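Exercise 3.2. Students should predict the tertiary structure of the chain below and write it as structure tokens, then compare their answer with the key that follows.

Predict this chain's 3D structure.
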Amino acid sequence: MEHHNPLLSGESPQKFITFGEIMLRLTPPNYEKIRVATSFEASYGGSEANIALALANLGIDSTFFSVVPNNSLGKSAVRMLRSNDVHCTPVILSSPEETPTHRLGTYYLETGYGIRPSKVTYDRKHSAITEYDFSRVDLDGLLEGYDWLHLSGITPALSPSCADFILACIKKAKEKGLTVSFDGNFRSLLWSWDEARDYCTQLLPYVDVLFGIEPYHLWKDENDPAKGDWKDGVPLQPSYEQQDEIFQAFVNRWPNLKCIARHVRYAHSGSENSLMAYMWYQGHTFESKLFTFNILDRVGGGDAFASGLIYAMMNGYKPMEMVNFAVASSVIKHTIHGDANITDDAKSIRALMNMDFDIKR
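Answer key:
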């Protein structure tokens, strides 16, 4: 099946940039629990970095902006990104004078198995990115020449300076005509639901492509507080009719939204899940195939879904192909160790996307 590809058509390919924290990930091997582990496997990850990595491996011109300490850990994280063809020129290697604690954020992953779920323990407070003074960053220069900016709800939760920078960044991006995607990515360990909702509401007028609405009620309407909640919440496993109604409510309130997408997970155990997705695009709600699979590493599944949809949109896929490609991208990520969906090319994702999955929910 042929798709529009700017790399082959002679057009200028779209340039993608994202901003967020990259962290050191430490995982006990062989599904061990942290409390009995005697060794840890080291890798690097973070929501925005995962998306930059996935897109770069699919051939997209992908850039990552962050702040890391100017030490061996910070340089190792940047080296990993560069080894996967992610441009890291904007990454700031901070000095102790700029970020006093001078550390790279870390998280520990205890991988679930069978009926035992996975568990994440963060150690990211006072990391370099949270202490940097972003008023020093030239936003015009940072975003010059790019076509697509991706942001998430994780980074503004890290510190007031990060929150201020994200808001300034998204406004500048729209001023410069970039396509903006945003993933709500609510993390209860970083901020409260009310804090997340109130902050994210400020961003929505500038967003073109929205991911990750499932943890939220409808975001707060400053002009009419009575409209601030969806009465029964946003269901984690909605019917088509429920999801279509929610999508329509979002679009009615924020007509700037061009696409809204969310994946839906059915957890049969810690080792076996099913995934499908809903997507609103061009006035219609689309429902993907349902995929059932075994899990090697679940972390980053949502980021793989987002990167898959961004790739499909950049390459002119049809709506049903877009949503199915995004889900297939997430499914494949569950079979790969580490945070990011590192695939050789889009062919393997399309092959899975086109398989016949006749599975009853």
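Discussion points: The radius of gyration is 20 Å. Residues 4-10, 225-232 have pLDDT under 50 and may be disordered.
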